[in-house]
Write a structure and sequence with these properties.
4 domains; Rossmann fold; 17 helices; ten-stranded mixed sheet; alpha/beta; single chain
Length: about 625
């Protein structure tokens, strides 16, 4: 494939908003290019995705135009607002397996007209290869802008740079603003209390059919009917007033202010120089990457270890859990997490505290965090999510930029140490012991070929997670593939619904969703069937053949997307129907030649010493 071409149609700053419009021209209809805007300030780098809006075939050609655009808030590029001045803007483009980390861009004629006489701009004028892709912005400045800074873009040193100045009209009194919010919330709550007796009376009248009934389930008994009508009234009031976004946000701010004051009070105490806190919202006890690190350093007598674990969905609302978190976060020299942790967003981390993110997944597969900008349920650019990490660990140098982008941090804050929990794949004694114990428990599987079915979930997160069970029928599947195979089902732990297994297949189909670690099951797996799960990285370490059952691939790309082009990325056969899946198994067509190069790309070190490298970094931070 010839090198793609890239043109800027618009790069314009209006107050604090940076609008970018661009076009990529490439020649493969099977690949969707990805563009990232790179903001570089000295050694600090921040990547943000430029959103693909449309694509179409160029008139009279086999080439494809891809149209990108997005508006960024310059107040939230770097975590320190006052340090954006003299930031260079450049672009990265990924096209299938080919990366262009600093792509040479052309400039549209209308764009160049805004820089009359600029030799750099004139030297990059686009030719007629971009005919028909010209863009004129109709965006107008916002007259009500009252931000702290005003930004501009200038051409300098063969590139574009952001400059900044104080907004002379900026004026906000945070104290009176806070008082106003509190008053508004208080009045709303008082109003709801005043209305409560009327809701009760209305509920009684509705139950007696003297006034129209509210939308509530019909139940037997007068008291139950009254109760149902009252609940419907209260729910309707909350929906239309208390849960209004503006009011709800003020209530949350009002509630969290108490904890912020509590945290600030704790921050007056000195940081405990020998204290390490392990915190996780994924589990109720120490496990995963955190356990591997703890096992290496637990015998050090000079370290005071603290722990906070909970998998409950309401862990962020429990007062005791919150206070325990704030106490650890304010006073521990090193804090370690292994996933997104909501409470980190509510306060500002002390500079003396070092926060490590030992992300639970390997590699870079599905986009997450700020890489999902513009997608459903993605974080807002102003969100503090992830951006407070001092260090995050990843499996290889090749994916540092993806995690830096997803977390909204600089490349220098991401360490390619390897993933601690993958060390288990290089422990032959552990693997042999697991296999022995597994086959002692499941004697009927001893001489079977084991297929592990381990798809990821759909939905926005833990509360809405599901897997469409109708997409895969394990009973029919077991019938088609024959008695030589058995199927182990391992759904994502977020998924609550389970498969019903026919009695005649229960010796060959076993649901392990609530049992054993997925990593352990890989030791006895002959074939992995998955879709978009990151378990493919662990499977590649064991050279396990894989089939990707991607029945909803294009919907998933639309909703979630991947860091690399899925078709050229995955290390195995792709199928779209259960029939294709069964045919691939019958013919043993798994495209296993893709596994080894995949492993080499996504794991810098395969020596079983990732835990030691991460532990060394943590001890260094503790002693600094």
């Amino acid at each position: 494939m010839s090198e793609p071409q890239f043109m800027l149609n618009n790069l314009e700053i209006i107050n604090s908003s940076l609008r970018i419009d661009a076009v990529a021209l490439y020649n493969s209809a099977d690949i969707t290019p990805k563009v990232r805007v790179v903001f570089k300030r000295g050694n600090d780098i921040r990547r943000l995705p430029l959103i693909l809006r449309n694509s179409f075939r160029k008139t009279g050609s086999e080439e494809i135009f891809a149209i990108f655009s997005f508006t960024y808030n310059l107040d939230y590029i770097f975590t320190e607002k006052e340090s954006l001045d003299n930031t260079c803007i450049s672009f990265e483009l990924d096209c299938g397996e080919n990366d262009y980390p600093d792509i040479e861009y052309r400039l549209s004629r209308n764009f160049a007209d805004r820089f009359p006489g600029d030799s750099f701009v004139r030297s990059r004028l686009a030719g007629n290869e971009f005919d028909g892709a010209l863009y004129y912005s109709s965006e107008k400045p916002r007259p009500d802008y009252n931000g702290e800074f005003i930004y501009n873009v200038i051409s300098k040193d063969n590139g574009f740079f952001v400059t900044k100045e104080k907004n002379p009209e900026y004026n906000i009194n945070s104290f009176f603003h806070s008082i106003y919010n509190c008053l508004q919330v208080t009045i709303t709550l008082l109003f709801s209390i005043i209305l409560l007796p009327f809701m009760v009376i209305d509920g009684i009248l509705a139950a007696l059919d003297l006034v129209p009934r509210r939308k509530a389930p019909l139940t037997e008994g007068f008291i139950s009917n009254v109760s149902g009508q009252i609940k419907a009234n209260i729910a309707n009031f909350i929906k239309n007033s208390i849960k209004d976004k503006t009011v709800a946000m003020k209530i949350i701010q009002f509630r969290d202010e108490h904890y912020r004051r509590y945290y600030k009070k704790l921050c007056r105490k000195p940081v405990k120089q020998n204290q390490i806190a392990f915190i996780s919202g994924r589990r109720d006890e120490l496990g995963g990457n955190e356990k591997y690190i703890y096992d290496l350093i637990k015998d050090r007598k000079n370290i005071d270890f603290k722990f906070l674990f909970s998998t409950q969905l309401d862990r962020f609302t429990k007062s005791g859990k919150k206070k325990e978190f704030y106490n650890l976060y304010a006073t521990s020299k090193v804090v370690i997490v292994d996933d997104y942790y909501n409470l980190l967003n509510t306060v500002e981390k002390r500079k003396d505290v070092k926060l490590f993110q030992l992300w639970h997944a390997c590699g870079a597969f599905k986009t997450f965090g700020f890489s999902r900008l513009g997608k459903p349920d993605s974080p807002k650019q102003a969100s503090p999510n992830h951006r407070m990490y001092d260090l995050a660990t990843v499996s290889s140098e090749s994916i540092v930029k993806y995690y830096a982008e997803g977390f909204g941090i600089s490349d220098s804050n991401v360490l390619p140490t390897g993933i601690p929990r993958t060390d288990i794949f290089f422990d032959n004694e552990y693997a042999d012991n697991f296999r022995k114990g597994f086959y002692e428990k499941y004697l009927q599987l001893k001489n079977k070929k084991i297929i592990l079915f381990a798809p990821t979930f759909r939905g926005a997160g833990q509360k809405s997670a599901y897997y469409p069970l109708s997409a895969f029928d394990p009973n029919s599947f077991a019938e088609k593939i024959g008695d030589d195979y058995c199927v182990l089902i391992k759904l994502h732990p977020f998924c609550l619904e389970r498969y019903e297994i026919d009695e005649k297949y229960k010796d060959r189909i076993i649901d392990f969703t609530d049992e054993d670690e997925l990593n352990d099951l890989l030791f006895i797996t002959d074939l992995l069937i998955t879709d978009y799960s990151s378990c493919v990285f662990e499977a590649s370490l064991l050279n396990i053949p894989m089939v990707f059952y991607a029945f909803d691939l294009y919907q998933y790309i639309s909703d979630r997307d991947f860091y690399s082009d899925f078709i050229s990325f995955v290390p195995g056969k792709i199928v779209f129907t259960q029939h294709e899946l069964e045919s691939a198994i019958e013919s043993e067509d798994f495209e296993t030649e893709k596994v080894q190069p995949f492993k080499e790309k996504y794991f810098s070190e395969t020596d079983g010493k990732a835990s030691q490298r991460v532990a060394d970094a943590i001890i260094k931070a503790l002693e600094s």
